């Protein structure tokens, strides 16, 4: 696969697509040093490409599952090129967003030395999400919840941990990295559970009360705090602190009976981290 890291147009496309697809991660990624910024941006877009398929409101579950499993199989085989994905996505080119249709571009933008790890995590996520589509997202036990949150968010922590090690040898704990992803996802579940219920979906295990899910979120955010505290590289810490601080703030707002943080609270939280980098 040709390394296109220095293709200015692709670079611009990566940054612009990131800006359009992620309010949570655009700012922290933009604070990273250049080499990490490009790597984390392209890695994030790889996973966002997969996530858009799972969340697509109009694709039939059988088609979602087939497409996700096909992507997982192709990525694990390492036998693919741009034409592979053009052909795979052709039947869905009018339904899928650009971030998904350009999956190969995001993969090709990753530096050669870390690309295999990014692809590995993306492949596991794609296959895992396909499995959850097949299960109709039925979460019955805490073990199911752990597996679901690992698939859709914990793998992000695994991938980031691999990227930190590639960048400067940072040896962060992958299990705590999984907690980082799980904590953010648990807060999302709590923030959206009423809306999810309206469409007949619940990510709460059968035995879970609302308090149990709050406990699950607190537990994993504590692991996320440990994860960040173990890292010494300032640019990595700053990246992690924004989504983690926002998750803590959102959880506090939910505990207080509010739906979300106020705009002023969000701006204050983000600005605290930004000031540390200036």
UniProtKB/TrEMBL annotation:
<dbReference type="Pfam" id="PF00494">
    <property type="entry name" value="SQS_PSY"/>
</dbReference>
<protein>
    <submittedName>
        <fullName>Phytoene/squalene synthase family protein</fullName>
    </submittedName>
</protein>
<dbReference type="InterPro" id="IPR008949">
    <property type="entry name" value="Isoprenoid_synthase_dom_sf"/>
</dbReference>
<dbReference type="InterPro" id="IPR002060">
    <property type="entry name" value="Squ/phyt_synthse"/>
</dbReference>
<dbReference type="GO" id="GO:0051996">
    <property type="term" value="F:squalene synthase [NAD(P)H] activity"/>
</dbReference>
<dbReference type="GO" id="GO:0045338">
    <property type="term" value="P:farnesyl diphosphate metabolic process"/>
</dbReference>
<dbReference type="InterPro" id="IPR044844">
    <property type="entry name" value="Trans_IPPS_euk-type"/>
</dbReference>
